[in-house]
Prior knowledge:
1 helix, single chain, Immunoglobulin-like, mainly beta, 6-stranded mixed beta sheet
Amino acid sequence: MLKLTLFLVMLHALPETHSFLIHEKSNRKNWLVRTPALVRATRGSCLVIPCSYTLPKAATGHSSYNGLWKKGTEQVIAAQSRKKLPHQDFQGRTRFLGSMHKRNCTWMMWNVRDSDAGLYFFRVHIPEYRSYSWSYQPTKVQVVGADYPDVKVTSGRAGGDVLAHCSVTHSCPMNPPTLTWNHDGTTLRGSRWMDDWLWMTNSILHHRPQQNTTLELRCTVTYYGGHTLYSTVHYG
């Protein structure tokens, strides 16, 4: 719950002038949704699709709003209302993170499968007014293999202290990958938003070698779901 709260705070804190919700379209009645046009999700991990929307003036005076995401034209995959259960292929793997009254329609998926690739769109239902689907403006999800971490020595000298940097990009800010080193030292870890749907997790290692020999630095990334990969760099 703490991770969810912190993530939603970060989501609302992003500056409006630098929006990560890049795929937008409106019709003559001012129905507008902002979502990424394309998201690449790591197989076995998770993804978050950011989303916000606006309504025509005639629709804003009502007190009840329901929202849901669909895959294709039939499968409901995430909904704000607990009365609307996801399709069986998505039960226990998706969650509606946003708040309809705050015009936030962000959602999340865990344990991404190859079969999850496809087109997804958002639908809003206002019981006292009408329903509206942005089926003409879907978000395309591509399922890809895990990336190897990028590792490099950023400063140091032979026989002296070494500063190394390791990073990996992902689409899962709620459960970011973990990065570990094969040598002891002082580490600084963090994650940051890049653009659109993309996030980066990084780790900086300050290591002091015990002897003047060639140093092998290995950084291992462990993704949500347990998949691991590593990259190695030699220095000295």
